[in-house]
Amino acid sequence: MKQPSIRPGRTRRSIAALASLACTAGLLTSCSAFGDDSGPPTLNWYVNPDGVETLTKLAKQCSTDDYDIEIQLLPSGATDQRTQLARRLAAKDSSTDLMSLDPVFVAEFANAGWLEKLPDEAATTAVDEDVLTGAAETVKWDDAVYAFPQWANTQVLWYRKSLAEKAGLDMTKPVTWSQIIEAAEKAGGTVGVQANKYEAYVVWINALIQGAGGDIISDNEAGKDAKIDIDSDAGKKAAEVIKQLADSDAKQPDLSTSNEGTSLGAMFPAEGPGEFMTNWTFVYKNYEGVVGAPGGPADKAAFGDLGYARYPQTVAGEDSKPPIGGIDIGVGAYSEHPDFAMAAAECVTNTQAQVALAVESGLMPARGSAYEDPALTKAYPADLLKLFRESVDTGGPRPKSAYYATISAAIQSEWHSPFDVDPDSTPGDSADFLSDVLNGKALL
Amino acid sequence: MSTATVERPARGKGKVRASDRARAENSLGQKLVAPAIFVMLLVTAFPMLRAIYLSVFNYTLTAPDDREFVGLGNYITALTDPLFWRDTGVTVLYMLVTVSVELVIGFVFAMVMHRVIFARGVIRTSILIPYGIITVVSGFAWQFAFSYQNGFVNGWLPGISEQFNWFGETTPAVIAIMVSEIWKTTPFMSLLLLAGLAQVSEDMIEAAKVDGASWTQRLFKVILPNMQAAIMVAVLFRALDAYRIFDNIFVMTNGASGTESISFLTYRQTIEQFQLGMGSALSVLLFLSVLLIAWLIVKLFRVDLAAARQEG
Amino acid sequence: MLRRLGTAVGCLLILVWCLLPVAWIISLSFKTQESITVGNPGFLPSEGTNAGWQNYIDVWDNEQFRRAILNSVGIALIATVASVILGTLAAYAIARLEFRGKKFVLTTALAIAMFPVVSLVGPLFDMWRTLGLYDTWPGLIIPYMSFTLPLAIWTLTAFFREIPWELEQAAQVDGATSWQAFRKIIVPLAAPGVFTAAILTFFFAWNDFVFGISLTSTENARPIPAALSFFVGADPFNRPASLLAAGAVIATIPIIVIVLVFQRKIVAGLTSGAVKG
Predict the structure, then answer these.
(1) Residues in chain B closer than 8 A to C266 (CB atoms)
(2) Distance (Å) from the C-alpha of residue C66 to the closest C-alpha of chain B?
(3) Touching B: which chains, 3+ CB pairs < 8 A?
């Protein structure tokens, strides 16, 4: 078996030599399994399908003489992405070098030993003070840093200015869920949310609970023995909002199967005044791109009718906790080239990369300085950028637990369908069920 | 399995003793079936034994070191869990409804195909298309057809609101899944019934007709009893197939709105939740329930297994 | 007269039943993605929402989709050939030879045809990881073989029973061994049956979903049904319905071609397979 000869790069020669040594010493086959023997090694980067075009460009830009980065596409749902990656990593797959991770799975993956811990220097830059708090928190686990925040997602309230006006709702002040549901009902509009039985429904529930000052669980590091807090006044308040929408005429017909895409069409419908919708940051670029097309605003003026405000409050007067999403880049623990992969991960998450993702694909930066980049300020209105940045900085993450997937699935199974949510029983039932599931006493 | 010693082929120079010949035949037969048996058992018997073994552990893929022996704990948890019984109930409902509807429609189709003289090729070709089409594709086609945003069903069905969301509640979602399942598998049923129909002698039907038997009498007294074997084999195969329903649920609702089948539950435990121990216990229970259904059908309806096994 | 009318109506019913959903998915594949996002109810693409061939071009441009087609064709063909070869050997023995364990073979085949596939994926997933077969072609080919063998054995046994075996005996009297008689005389006669078994096997492998999603994790081996269910378009938050439909139509073309060309053989195979006597 021929040793893969590596074209010497100027700066990373020693690392390359080390890596090639490790390569010959280790599993010979896997070194050449990807790419031919003569070229530099290939780093596989498993990406979720957001902004794939930009990611492809980044992969190319961040490839060096020492390695090539190649993109592998994951399925679209967060749950499916986790399943695919976890199955590879549980098999100690050496071809998983870089991965785009939904923030909620960093804890689980780190806990299972599937993520390479960031070396001190990289760890410091990955979460330096430029990184927005909401995003920085997602990559920390057990006093260490396990991934680089690449972009930060958050939800805001999107709405038609004309609809709010018609309903007489003052959007200059923070609004509550109850207010927008009533306003939409009054003006013949709708309220768009994500309430299918999937991860984004938990995003909504979690934001509602946190908005009322509560949590699904606390003492997260205890794993299976975490304290379950969902059966609380905050849980009840959250259930009340869901019930109010489910009982209201402002609900969309597909409430119990709604997702980020289904509610888009109701903003600029052929008939009717439009909607209030909580949704991620991509919405702005989405509507800008379909001006004049069916389902989009009729013209520039109609697009100007698209308003945005901070995520609605669960309880009047108490600050809302906008959901935090986005993507963190982790390095696989079984990678043959962890040093290369670390360097690559750092490169695809630097400020320029984040600006490119924001401008080209509408995926908002995790670094504060990126929001001031001229390319970005030109592409977005200043007040929208400020809103995004603020939301990420003050948002509420979903529970950071090694058992997050289980927690999320248990919540989904008790809170879906939204039509069956009962403020008096659902929070309590879901607390009992979650406890049973975590202790292996019930099927999920 | 084959434990044949080195074969001495009966090379035909002069006379060959009958016992040698029989032994050679025995040995050749075993050698010929050995590879098929090996492959069939490799992917079924061995994993099944492993599932039985794993089912007595609490074993999660994400924490392999925490594996602990729990005896029959997983089985007790599963069998006392309301979710298990709800999913079993839904699965039985899928099976009963789809198989009965298919039996009726499939029989009508078989009658038509049996009688049709013109355009025989066209009819048979088109009936094979649902049979050959990928179940996932069928699921998508029907999911979009039932979608209130992009489908045609709400527009075509009288008494259904244009805005009706079929996948929002259990009953309509289960119906939509059943429609896809029935559409896809009725051709299989009708072709099996066609084969049975071909074996009912025309003379007997004519004789009954001469005796003044009405159409219904001929159907229930002559045709159906005479194709009982075919019907029962078709029911057996389709029932067991329907009990394993998975693809359509995965595509159309992903198990939401209470449409989850027992196969889907098992899949989620092992593949999505990584609960290998509990998943294995469910696998064993699923396997046992399939055996039970097969046994019930065979006993209750006296299906001639020899016919199904091709010992004609 | 009434009877003929009934048959004609029945024919029409069958045609509508079988072809309507196919027509529907074809119609869907010609609608524009934008109109689907907004909601575009109705059967046919209406004015201004007709995308022409654009969806087909887009889906074909998608590398994952092309890989999935390649995987499916390769895996299904290999599984078919391998399964039919083993099935032929076994069916010959069952139809023709007396040997101990025949009943065992037939019972095993029957039992496996009824086996709940899902109950195997957990342990198989585990086994394949250990053996390095996870997410590879052989990792799917082997289970496909196991589950198509019963079908192949039944169909072939039914066909082999119809073959005039006197020819083989004549050959044996002339001094050929059982094996030679099998190879030289019977194989050519059995070819049509083998062919039918191959088609049915191919259908199974092409249709499989459970193994396809459980035993693969990348485009390395992911077959077309799994790829369709994971398919994502340019906008990850909107399921690309019309692209999916175009992909589904492409995935159905091989089936339609096979059905059109081999209709007789498939019907003969299905009707002789499970019901005899």
Answers:
(1) 128
(2) 17
(3) A, C
Place of tokens 């006392």: B80
* Domain ranges across chain A: 13-152+325-388, 153-323+398-438
Ranges in chain A, pLDDT < 50 = 1-36
> How would residue B309 be classed by pLDDT, with cut points 50, 70 and 90?
low
Its CATH class, for the domain covering C63-230, is: mainly alpha
- What count of residues does chain A have? 444
Chain-centre distance for alpha carbon C18: 18
| Other CB atoms within 10 Å distance of the CB of residue A360 | 16
8 Å CB contact of C230 and A80: yes
Residues 6+ apart with CB under 8 A from C184: C171, C176
- Given a contact cutoff of 8 angstroms between Cβ atoms, the answer to whether B286 and B263 are in contact is yes
- CA distance to partner chain B, nearest, from residue A112 (Å): 6
ipTM of this complex prediction, to 2 decimal places: 0.87
Please state, rounded to an integer, the average pLDDT across all residues of chain A. Answer: 87
Which one-letter DSSP state was computed for residue A160?
E
**Which domains are seen in chain B, by residue range?**
74-308 (1.10.3720.10)
- Cα separation of A356 and A350, whole Å? 10
A442 vs B58, B81, B167: nearest CB: B81
C-alpha A226/C-alpha A217 separation (Å) is 7
Structure confidence by residue, pLDDT tens digits, A121-155: 889 988 999 999 889 989 999 889 999 999 999 99
The 3-state DSSP class for residue C274 equals coil
**Which residue intervals of C49-136 are DSSP H helices?**
54-61, 63-96, 102-113, 118-131
Question: What is the C-alpha separation between A362 and A93, in angstroms, rounded?
Answer: 32
Phi and psi at residue B245, in whole multiples of 5°?
Answer: -50, 130
Centre a 10 Å sphere on the Cβ of residue B78 and count the other Cβ atoms it contains: 22
What is each CA distance from B108 to A219, B82, C168, in whole angstroms? 63, 39, 42
So where are chain C's domains?
Answer: 63-230
Q: Which of B130, B141, B308 sits opposite C274 (nearest CB)?
A: B308
**Phi-psi label, residue A198: left if phi above 0, alpha if psi -120 to 50, beta otherwise:** beta
| Mutual angle of helices B135-146 and C241-273, in 10-degree steps | 130
Contact C236 A76 (CB under 8 A): yes
Question: Which three-class secondary structure state does DSSP give residue A316?
Answer: coil
CA-nearest of C82, C207, C200, C192 to C146 is C82
**Bridge partners, residue B275, by sequence:** B60
> How does pLDDT run across B252-304, given as a tens digit for each residue?
988 888 899 999 999 988 888 888 889 999 999 999 999 899 888 888 877 65
Answer yes or no: same fold for A13-152+325-388 and A153-323+398-438: yes
Buried b (16+ CB within 10 A) or exposed e, A310-340: bbbbbbeebbbbbbbbbbbbbbbbbbbbbbb
Q: Which residue from B162, B237, B266 is facing C119, i.e. has the nearest CB?
A: B266
What is the CA A399 to chain-centroid distance, rounded? 13
Give the CATH architecture of domain A13-152+325-388: 3-Layer(aba) Sandwich (3.40)
Residues A153-323+398-438, CATH architecture: 3-Layer(aba) Sandwich (3.40)
- For residue C159, give the chain B residue with the closest CA: B310
CA distance A193 to A276: 9
Which among A109, A202, A257, A419 is the top mutation candidate for probing chain B, defined by the most B β-carbons within 10 Å of its own β-carbon? A257
